[in-house]
Design a protein that fits this description.
single chain, mainly alpha, Arc Repressor Mutant, subunit A, globular
């Protein structure tokens, strides 16, 4: 996996939040997504700190997106979770890797990194929501097609 488990959980949670702007409790998201509750709550708080989510305490509180899901990119979430320089540096960990002293994977990693960066800046949380809906619909269709 290119990114941490926490980043994967963050993306899944953001895609599961209601589009209507209503608040959702961390424990409900954790249950719906079968994720560890306390860990997810910590991740969501980090997303509040980065301005992707807002939160309200109390019985009618929870978390919600600060903007429409089609205005939040996957790259923005990855940067919030992993840091701005998460894609920088040598993939093999060599401190001197660069144009003058490239490691064996330098050029290949540069091409992959450019492709991943472009994809993450184009893909939005709404795209993840639509993908999830499509997968649910396909799973339901497969279930209906099976003979009893």
């Amino acid at each position: 996996m290119l990114f941490s488990t926490a980043t994967g959980y963050a993306l899944r949670a953001l895609a599961a939040l209601p589009e209507d702007g209503s608040y959702c409790l961390a424990k409900d998201l954790a249950t719906d997504l079968t994720l560890p509750g306390p860990y997810l709550a910590k991740i969501l708080q980090g997303l509040v700190q980065s301005g992707i989510l807002e939160s309200v305490r109390g019985p009618r509180g929870g978390f919600r997106l600060t903007r429409a899901s089609h205005h939040i990119t996957v790259g923005e979430v990855v940067t919030a979770m992993e840091g701005a320089d998460s894609m920088e540096g040598c993939i093999m960990g060599f401190p001197t890797c660069g144009g003058d002293h490239p490691c064996p994977l330098h050029d290949a990693w540069g091409a992959v990194k450019d492709q991943v960066t472009t994809s993450m800046t184009e893909a939005t949380i709404r795209d993840l929501q639509l993908m999830d809906l499509r997968h649910q619909r396909e799973a339901q269709e497969r279930t209906q097609e099976r003979p009893a």
